[in-house]
Amino acid sequence: MAPASPLPMDPIAEAKRQWVAHGWADTADAMAAFSSVMRAHQLMYGRVDAALKPLGLSYARLELLRLLSFTRDGALPMASASARLQVHPTSVTSLVHRLEKDALVRREAHPSDGRATLVVLTDAGRQVAEEATTVLNAEVFANPGIPAADLPVMTAILARFRRNSGDFTDPVEYPEPL
């Protein structure tokens, strides 16, 4: 969250200056980049949280609702939801439990795999996901505070970092069907 009033200086630039002064010039740029991304995350998450709070949602809850809404049947095995959201299965179970309490999702037995449980989007969940997306688009994504031309560059840089960190692999490109 942003401070009540802006600081009179950039604390990350000052930390970088101190890093160099203390003999760590070879890692100062990386420290400043990492610190900047972590602070940017705090600022971005604060904006998203403020937009979603009136709807009783966190970003994690909305991510699961949106993921389900993007599927053909509004349902996914819990393990698939965990993998796609890149969170531990325990976190998905906790999210599903809270969303169930609000009647936004329900659990069902998997029709062909007796070991799996499906998480299914309810009509109320679909409606809340649509409302929340409208709010986020209007209050956050339409004016992200980053010039529009910089967004694809920023996304590409971060995707490259994520890929190189083992977050994902590039998809296999299949030839066009005959």
UniProtKB/TrEMBL annotation:
Residues 30-163 form the HTH marR-type domain. It comes from the Bacteria. InterPro entries: HTH_MarR-typ (IPR000835), MarR/SlyA-like (IPR039422), WH-like_DNA-bd_sf (IPR036388), WH_DNA-bd_sf (IPR036390). GO terms for biological process: response to stress. GO terms for molecular function: DNA-binding transcription factor activity. SMART domains: HTH_MARR. This is MarR family transcriptional regulator. It comes from Arthrobacter psychrolactophilus.
